[in-house]
Design a protein that fits this description.
single chain; Four Helix Bundle (Hemerythrin (Met), subunit A); globular; Rossmann fold; binds zinc ion; about 425 residues; alpha/beta; five-stranded parallel sheet
């Protein structure tokens, strides 16, 4: 699948030191620095292409863009892979409801998503992979799981046995009761007769009348959700054999912690004999004016609609960065308006002949971002610099600040 257009990152002057990036790891329930490396491997779960791109998506991809940018600003290489769940129940259900071909629906939403990512100045992944094009990889991974006695059949469907991973549950830390509740809410089938454990997850769904299917050693069918990410990540990120974990970061929204990331990690562990990721990083959910944003409530706000109504994409980026990525946050029109005003004032200050000193603010923004991507602090530092510049302070290099804001925060001004 084509990714989107590459984005140039301005270089950061070498005199600015860049401490290691600390990120909150859900599995260890704490903030830990990523070890110094020349190459980091990041996998972020992509969209199911039927309702791209609402602000919840935008917030997630912005979060991992900030981590990506910080590591690149440190001079490291980043291998970044993202999937597209272009075959799944919600996509087929929406296509049926709207009487469109599921492939056309997916293609139209993927095109919209790419455009939104370009507008939001999100660095493209090195590999942007649809499940349909990765079908052989997914089938190979399931075959390996089967050879390691971690699968079983129920009728013509194949399941992953969660007990095959002795660490199952260690990334999400939920009670059995909570796991069962969330599993049922997010596509699982805990009550199905014939399963060995209610939490066992579908790996391969045998062919159903009227649904697309692919040939496989386990019969005609289509893959379950979790195995696709695991298979795509382990193939395209090319894990180092010497490392304790297969990849550095497994990322996504906090609604993916369970079951999706727990299952992918468990399957990845069986496939490679080691922990899947060093850091499991999650961004919070976005609400609208204090109410949870969801498809069922019909209150999704779409990036493309905001942009077509004349909203500056950098104001969307700024508004999302006003609160910390890890928290559940609320989007509001008033917040967007304030963000737009700050973008205008920042642009004006950056175009002034004389501005407040910039070295200190750049160094402080670097420190804030290194500390678990503390964007509220970074924006506060920028606001103070704008105010000081408006009041006539001198001695800064606005060109250098402009390049740093682009490199680290993705604010193209
Ligand atoms: Zn995923």
């Amino acid at each position: 699948m084509n990714s989107w257009a590459s984005v140039a990152i301005p270089p950061l002057d070498k005199r600015f030191s860049t401490p290691p990036l600390s990120l909150w790891d859900t599995a260890r329930a704490g903030s830990y620095p990523l070890p110094d490396k020349d190459l980091y491997r990041i996998y972020v779960c992509g969209i199911t292409p039927y309702d791209a791109t609402h602000l919840g998506h935008a917030a997630t991809y912005l979060t991992f863009d900030l981590a990506h940018r910080y590591l690149r600003a440190r001079g490291a290489e980043v291998r970044f892979v993202q999937n597209i769940t272009d075959i799944d129940d919600p996509l087929l259900e929406r296509a049926l409801r709207d009487n469109v071909d599921w492939r056309e629906l997916a293609q139209s939403q993927i095109a919209l998503f790419r455009g939104d990512m370009v507008n939001l100045h999100i660095l493209p992944p090195d590999h942007y992979i649809g499940v349909v094009e990765a079908m052989e990889l997914v089938i190979q991974s399931i075959t390996t799981l089967a050879s390691r006695s971690s699968t079983y059949e129920v009728d013509k469907d194949l399941y992953f046995s969660v007990h095959a991973d002795s660490d199952f549950g260690s990334r999400s830390h939920l009670s059995q009761e909570k796991m069962l509740e969330i599993f049922a809410e997010r596509g699982g089938d805990p009550t199905r007769i014939g399963k060995r454990d209610p939490l066992d997850a579908l790996l391969w769904l045998g062919h159903r009348e009227g649904e697309p299917s692919w040939p496989s050693p386990f019969g005609e069918g289509r893959p379950g959700w979790h195995i696709e990410c695991c298979a795509i990540a382990l193939h395209y990120l090319e894990p180092e054999t010497s490392s304790d974990t297969s990849i550095d970061i497994q990322g996504g929204g906090s609604d993916l912690i369970f079951p999706h990331h727990e299952m992918s990690a468990a399957q990845g562990k069986i496939l490679q004999g080691r922990e899947f990721a060093s850091h499991y990083v999650h961004s919070g959910m976005i609400g609208l004016e204090g109410v949870k944003m969801s498809k069922s409530l019909g209150n999704l706000v779409f990036v493309s609609k905001l942009v077509s109504s004349g909203v500056d994409p950098m104001a969307i980026r700024w508004a999302l960065m006003e609160s910390h990525y890890s928290t559940d946050r609320s989007w509001s029109d008033s917040g967007l308006l304030k963000a737009s005003e700050w973008i205008i004032r920042l642009r004006r200050a950056l175009s002034m002949m004389e501005t407040a000193p910039t070295d200190g603010v750049i160094a402080s923004i670097i420190s804030a971002q290194a500390d678990n991507l503390d964007t509220p602090k970074s924006l506060q530092l920028i606001k103070e610099w704008v105010l000081a510049s408006e009041l006539g302070a001198e001695g800064g290099s606005p060109g250098e600040l402009s390049r740093a804001l682009d490199a680290i925060l993705g604010l193209a001004l």
